[in-house]
What does this fold into?
Amino acid sequence: MTEFSLLVTAGPQRPGALTALRTARALQASPYPIYRLFFYGEGVLLAHRLLDAGDPASETARAWQHWVRDTSAPATVCVGAAHKRGVTAETLAGGFQLVGLGDWVDALNHGGRVVHFG
It folds into this structure.
């Protein structure tokens, strides 16, 4: 069976972040499993639990965070990109895991389909 890995580089203010979430939800409801969600670049901000609640972009981040928490999706965040943007272990939302780029290489080598949302 084909597994999917999603690369999310769109930050919370970009339409691609919401499109990625909708795709992840659709995959979850389908027979095609998600192997890995990998947040990189500005996409790591979707895992930042301390985003300003007054910012409309934070709604997209909150939606991601609730979905990851509720589904136990395999949500990984590039540690280098995260630290560059102020996302640390202390500010990481529940359900997300800080990892190195090796985890993304694993997703690429695992086979299946890769979809990028930037």
User: Anything to note?
Assistant: The helical segments are 15-28, 58-71, 79-84, 101-109.
